[in-house]
Amino acid sequence: MLINERAIRRASGNPNGKSHLALPNIKTLEKQPDPKTLLRELLRNACGLQGRRLKNFNAEARVPQVAGWIDDDFTPLRALSAFQKLESDIGQLAFEITNDHEQ
Questions:
Q1: Measuring CA to CA, which residue among 49, 71, 70 is closest to residue 59?
Q2: Which residues of 40-51 are buried (b: 16+ CB within 10 A; e: fewer)?
Q3: Which pLDDT belongs to residue 48?
Q4: In this structure, are 53 and 101 located in the same domain?
Q5: Do 10 and 52 have their domain in common?
Q6: Which domain holds residue 28?
Q7: Domain check: are 18 and 67 in the same one?
Q8: What distance in Å separates the CA atoms of residue 58 and residue 61, rounded to the nearest whole number?
Q9: pLDDT (tens digit, 9 = 90+) per residue, 7-54?
């Protein structure tokens, strides 16, 4: 979610915003010390609000919306070891479920 600028901007409610978003590099993604806080900060920057409106902006409520705006292309994430493991685990689980139903 941290690398998809389009999804972050849409979830923030400002899809056409032009403010700079300091998205992390894909290579440093797994090393982010607090990705949840970073995502909330990105949402606050993307929303384009200021003053009282920004203070009242609920970034926490927008976090789940980011996932909903992500396209089905997870290709960039395949460079991450954690994502590779997730795909492997899902494949193994699907194989086991399929074999259980065939018996």
A1: 49
A2: bebbbbbbbbee
A3: 96
A4: no
A5: yes
A6: 1-71
A7: yes
A8: 6
A9: 999 999 999 999 999 999 888 888 899 999 999 999 999 999 999 999
**Which comes out higher in pLDDT, residue 73 or 97?**
97
Residues 12 and 61 in one domain: yes
pLDDT of 91 > 90? The answer is yes
Alpha helix positions (H), the chain: 5-12, 35-47, 51-56, 59-69, 81-102
90/46 same-domain check: no
Are 45 and 8 contacting, i.e. CB atoms less than 8 angstroms apart? no
Enter the tokens of residue 13.
């409610």
Contact indicator for 10, 4 with CB cutoff of 8 Å: no
**Residue 35 near residue 62, CB atoms below 8 Å:** no
